[in-house]
């Protein structure tokens, strides 16, 4: 498994952070002006951005929880069986349903101050959007990716929180049609997306990186021990270091010990030496 480079980490982390604002200038990050497609949820909120440019990599960014309803989805952890050949794979029902919902387009009317020909073009555009919105979220992602993959591009999925779980499920499903088109999956603060049989048969283990930061409680969800299992390589950011594939119980134990001992560690000389740069500002 290839290590995740620093510039790759920073790129995906920035894009995940920028998934939350309503707008951002994607061209500043190497994507073409026309290389952007936004997918909305049933309330018309953007939850997924597909970005591409001259570079052979497409990036699909999944936004995490935005409302109380989104957070409640984390509790909908009933099993949902996925079709995967002769194998049985069970995943989190709530995250699966997020990908099965359809978009809600805001109502729009033709501008009375433009010409008839422009109004016709506007109406045709609206028809195309309505046809697109009639598809599920996953079907919309696939529709956007298909022509880009036909050009020889490869796709990277990234997401924060529940968006990371959605990225895992989309990558797993897309792999069944385009096994060589998926470059990598990088998630941040992601809850587990599937059961043990999903982890056992997950085909992208060597291309998946799961980033956790200290004691991020969401990464321990759903709150049912030994029922849900994470996939991919764990990169745990803790106490200024990166730990790889630390077991969950060890991560929880070290985090709690760190919190308890933190007041004492501030007395160590390395803390004073680390803060020496403060004096350059005075």
UniProtKB/TrEMBL annotation:
- UniProt xrefs under InterPro entries: AB_hydrolase_fold, Fungal_lipase-type, Sec_MonoDiacylglyc_Lipase
Q: Which SUPFAM superfamilies match?
A: alpha/beta-Hydrolases (SSF53474)
* Domain Fungal lipase-type, chain residue ranges per copy: 59-224
Pfam families per the record?
Lipase_3
Listed under GO biological process in this entry are:
lipid metabolic process
Q: What is this protein called?
A: Lipase
């Amino acid at each position: 498994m290839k290590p995740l480079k620093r510039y790759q980490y920073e790129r995906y982390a920035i894009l995940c952070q920028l998934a939350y604002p309503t707008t951002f200038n994607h061209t500043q990050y190497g994507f073409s002006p026309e290389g952007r497609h936004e997918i909305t949820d049933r309330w018309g909120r953007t939850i997924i951005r597909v970005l591409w440019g001259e570079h052979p990599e497409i990036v699909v960014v999944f936004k995490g929880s935005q409302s109380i309803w989104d957070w409640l989805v984390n509790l909908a952890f009933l099993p949902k069986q996925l079709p995967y050949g002769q194998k049985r794979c069970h995943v989190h029902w709530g995250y699966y349903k997020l990908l099965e919902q359809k978009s809600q387009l805001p109502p729009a009317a033709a501008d009375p101050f433009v010409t008839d020909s422009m109004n016709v073009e506007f109406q045709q555009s609206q028809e195309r959007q309505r046809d697109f919105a009639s598809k599920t979220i996953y079907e919309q992602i696939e529709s956007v990716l298909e022509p880009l993959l036909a050009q020889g591009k490869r796709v990277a999925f990234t997401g924060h929180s529940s968006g990371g779980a959605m990225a895992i499920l989309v990558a797993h499903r897309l792999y069944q049609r385009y096994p060589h088109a998926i470059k990598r999956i990088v998630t941040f603060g992601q809850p587990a997306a599937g059961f043990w049989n999903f982890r056992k048969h997950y085909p992208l283990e060597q291309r998946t990186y799961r980033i956790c930061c200290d004691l991020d409680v969401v990464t321990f969800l759903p709150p049912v021990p030994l029922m849900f299992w994470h996939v991919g390589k764990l990169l745990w950011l803790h106490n200024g270091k990166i730990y790889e594939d630390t077991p969950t119980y060890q991560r929880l134990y070290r985090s709690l010990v760190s919190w308890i001992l933190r007041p004492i560690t501030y007395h160590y000389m390395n803390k004073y030496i680390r803060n020496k740069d403060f004096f350059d500002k005075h």
